[in-house]
Amino acid sequence: MTPDLPSVAGANGAASDPAFLSYPADPVRTVTGVPGSGGTYVTRTPLWGAIPPSSGNSYYDAVNKALGATLKMQPADGNTYVDALPALFASGKLPDWIQIPSWINQRLNLGSAVDRFADLTPYLAGENIARYPNLANIPTAAWQAGVWNGKLYGIPSYSSPNNFPGYLFCRKDLLDAAGVSAEVRSADELFALGKALTDAKAGRWAFDDLWPYLLFPFRVISTWNQGPGGKLIHQYETPGMIEALNFAARLAKAGYVHPDALAGNTANGQQRFWSGKVAISGGGTGAMNGDDAKGGTAANPDYSRQAFKGVPAGQLRRRRRGPHHEGREAILAERGQKDVATSFQFLATGPQVTLVQNGFTQVARDYAAWQADAVKYAAKPLFFAMNISEPPQYASIGQQVEDTIKDVRYGRKPVEAFKSAVDTWRKQGGDQLRGFYEGIRDKHGTGA
């Protein structure tokens, strides 16, 4: 199939996802018959949005009928999903199928817990995967995320040749109304937006909580970094971390950050952005899509979410006679809007593509354009695509640093408190952990 907007190659092997602006007239059928043979399997996946009903769900029932098995879907709030996983692991009551975001691997010390999961290697390695054409279509590199100690335990979801963890984005319509530009090229220019967009008396603030996405503009992209003389440097020890913390504290102390964000209330962040209570926020790349546009335009017809750097300035507008379509696109009826959610996709997904959702074609175009620009600057962090099991004695030494980071970026403690916490981290095992990773590097390389 030929995409409407082809993939664009970038730096370090990165590429943008291809975009399709209409549903294919003749979609390819990859599975014939009913693949399942009965049984009921409990799942757990994240969901950023309204949780649909589990029982009497027409979408779940239709998919299970086609599968020939029953997947009991139990999506959980994506905002708190990773926070609940450690307790779930500790309880020993894991579901049959669970989605584990890669960014929590270290916190879970997943490498020491893989024996709780099924070894899929005999079923999917080598020529065996040919029995499953949809899985065989997933790029080889994507499977590395589920490999531990030479065995396959996980199936990729949302695999992409760019794999950006997130970005900073803005309400373009609010910036336009304030007469300021979204073409921000420096920290000073971003800070200046705070004054232009904050009106506390009117209940509007420029910023929501930008962490950890604020790290990227300050070139903090890797947990470990090559230092002088072959020594590895942790991100806690980089100048960029200090600069990012100082900048975040400046925003907080200037009164440019929404009070609920400073109180750690992340659950209502989406509503703050949709309602215009904040104009600039940070989040995962899945935030910019037609579902978001549907929610945002319900609050304000001029709603326009745009990512900083490289995104076209075109306004997103809903036409009064309904959403704008370009070709064919499936639109959910009232029952579908209640029952359908992104749930099965977090269990296994083919190669990532950008699609039109809810008729918002311009959103798909804008996101594809942002990706095409962003991949030019893509960089691989150290130990890229390498699953490493840290010794368990180091599992909690970073918590006091993370707690201090929150206090510093919220303006409650000075940056000297962070430096002191890092010194404690070194003494409690950080230096030994450095030696552990230097041994991994010397023996296996860095993946970069």
UniProtKB/TrEMBL annotation:
- GO cellular component terms, semicolon-separated: cell envelope
Q: What is its main location?
A: other
Q: Where in the cell is it found?
A: Cell envelope
Q: Which UniProt keywords apply?
A: Signal, Transport
Q: Where is this region: Disordered?
A: 293-328
Show the Gene3D superfamilies listed in the entry: Periplasmic binding protein-like II
Keyword Cytoplasm belongs to the record: no
Query: Has keyword Transmembrane?
Result: no
Similarity remark: Belongs to the bacterial solute-binding protein 1 family.
Mind telling me what this protein is named? Putative aldouronate transport system substrate-binding protein
Q: Give the species this sequence originates from.
A: Nonomuraea jabiensis
